[in-house]
């Protein structure tokens, strides 16, 4: 049994997925509500950890709390640790009493449905020396991760039953980028208008899902043979339900996703075709090197009916954020997408306000003064509270992280945690009249100042 969270942090992490559909954070308990496919050990890994309030000395139950996201949860406050140096006391979250999202979004979920946040997933494919760490910032963004600040897609949030995040985009073309320099469109030969509406969902497994006919077009041009003479093979691992191919006969090029009247996001082959990783019975994450995983999920035939309002909307998932940088501003009712600068070495973190502008003063005055957007912003660091030694069970969790935490910063103007990932009430929402989003009247974030560098707590 672990004696405190700092000791636990050296061994086991809770991993949490950023989730825009929910406004609350949810951490699975000792009953992870996994299917019979998973052993008890595999279920703990599948859920990112297992919270056991019975062995925590710092937990308090939240009584008379109403469930806000449409399902039952046991509401708790507890001290959560981010590595050795930072922790949050009295952090409220729900312990789900059911499976929330099946295997497409399997882990504990950091609810971001009422917040401003930005995300870069990090490069996760290719050799280890080419991989990069990701970033999740609440209340602002890291300008160093943006390739060109003036080259972005910005639109209003449009929430519907088919896109809970509200981030609906129109894909005007998908190009296969061959190493020879040749580009081929999988939209080629399709009747006009050849476009796809898709929902950006940072928690969704894989790169994207495609309607069946578009996936078949991709496969026709890209080639590849499913393993074991199968007509189709899918992963049941980390990139759930994406496509599997023989290791020696899989697509070897990249892909460019063109957003209508806006930017083109290029996905390198190392992020498109990866080893198939899965969770073993003992809970360890292992790799099947005999197959290649093309991280695209082909939707079923019945989901490819544009005349049916209940059809599944294609999704741009978390691996899309390996090549794109995403900002969501719930209060402004807008979101923005840039091509990412994955070569960034030094953070340049700034906050955004309700008007989707940078703010120069992170903390309003005690007399009720508002933030200003005319001078360089400064950042404040909140000292970590004392850890009171809560203990968590085997496969237990030590704090909400996305990968392994290295530092933490607070922007108090928005009262949001500004959180840097070193390892891997409803807010006002702008509603457009039609799903076909219009972007000409939507204001992207303003970048008119040079911010001061943020302070970060030391981390491993």
Automatic annotation (TrEMBL):
Q: Identify the InterPro entries for this entry.
A: Peptidase_aspartic_dom_sf (IPR021109)
Q: Does the keyword Membrane apply?
A: yes
Q: Where is this region: Disordered?
A: 363-387, 437-460
Q: Where is the composition biased (Low complexity)?
A: 364-380
Q: Does the keyword Cell cycle apply?
A: no
The UniProt keywords, alphabetically, are:
Membrane, Transmembrane, Transmembrane helix
Q: Per the UniProt record, which residue ranges are transmembrane?
A: 396-419
Q: Which residues are the signal sequence here?
A: none
The protein in question is named Acid protease
What species does this protein belong to?
A: Didymosphaeria variabile
């Amino acid at each position: 049994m672990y004696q405190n969270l700092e000791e636990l942090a050296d061994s086991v992490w809770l991993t949490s997925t950023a989730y825009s559909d929910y406004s609350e954070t949810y951490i699975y308990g000792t009953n992870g509500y996994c299917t019979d496919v998973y052993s008890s050990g595999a279920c703990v890994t599948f859920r990112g950890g297992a919270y056991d309030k019975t062995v925590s000395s710092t937990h308090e139950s939240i009584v008379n709390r109403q469930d806000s996201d449409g399902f039952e949860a046991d509401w708790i406050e507890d001290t959560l640790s981010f590595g050795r140096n930072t922790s949050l006391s009295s952090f409220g979250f729900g312990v789900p009493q059911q499976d929330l999202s099946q295997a497409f979004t399997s882990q504990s979920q950091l609810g971001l449905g009422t917040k401003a946040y930005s995300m870069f997933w990090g490069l996760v494919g290719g050799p280890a020396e080419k991989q990069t760490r990701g970033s999740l910032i609440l209340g602002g963004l890291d300008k160093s991760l943006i390739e060109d600040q003036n080259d972005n897609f910005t639109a209003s949030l449009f929430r519907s039953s088919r896109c809970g995040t509200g981030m609906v985009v129109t894909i005007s073309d998908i190009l296969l980028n061959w190493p020879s320099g040749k580009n081929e469109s999988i939209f080629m030969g399709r009747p006009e208008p050849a476009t796809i509406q898709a929902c950006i969902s940072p928690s969704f497994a894989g790169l994207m899902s495609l309607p069946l006919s578009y996936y078949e077009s991709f496969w026709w041009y890209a080639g590849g043979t499913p393993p074991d003479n199968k007509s189709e093979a899918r992963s049941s691992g980390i990139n759930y339900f994406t496509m599997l191919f023989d290791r020696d006969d899989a697509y070897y090029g990249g892909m460019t996703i063109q957003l209508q009247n806006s930017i083109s996001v290029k996905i390198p082959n190392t992020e498109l075709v990866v080893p198939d990783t899965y969770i073993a019975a003992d809970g360890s994450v292992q790799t099947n090197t005999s197959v290649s995983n093309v991280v695209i999920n082909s939707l079923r035939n019945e989901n490819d009916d544009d005349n049916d309002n209940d059809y599944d909307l294609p999704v741009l998932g978390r691996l899309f954020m390996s090549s794109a940088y995403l900002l969501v501003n719930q209060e402004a009712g807008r979101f923005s997408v840039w091509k990412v600068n994955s070569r960034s070495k030094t953070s340049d973190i700034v906050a955004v306000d309700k008007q989707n502008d940078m703010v120069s003063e992170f903390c309003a005055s005690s007399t009720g003064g508002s933030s200003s957007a005319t001078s360089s912003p400064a950042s404040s660091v909140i000292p970590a509270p004392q850890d009171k030694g809560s203990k968590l069970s085997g496969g237990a969790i030590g704090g909400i992280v996305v990968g392994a935490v290295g530092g933490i910063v607070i922007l108090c103007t928005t009262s949001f945690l500004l959180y840097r990932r070193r390892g891997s009430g409803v807010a006002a929402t702008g509603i457009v009249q039609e799903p076909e989003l219009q972007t000409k009247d939507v204001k992207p974030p303003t970048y008119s100042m040079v911010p001061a560098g943020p302070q970060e707590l030391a981390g491993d």
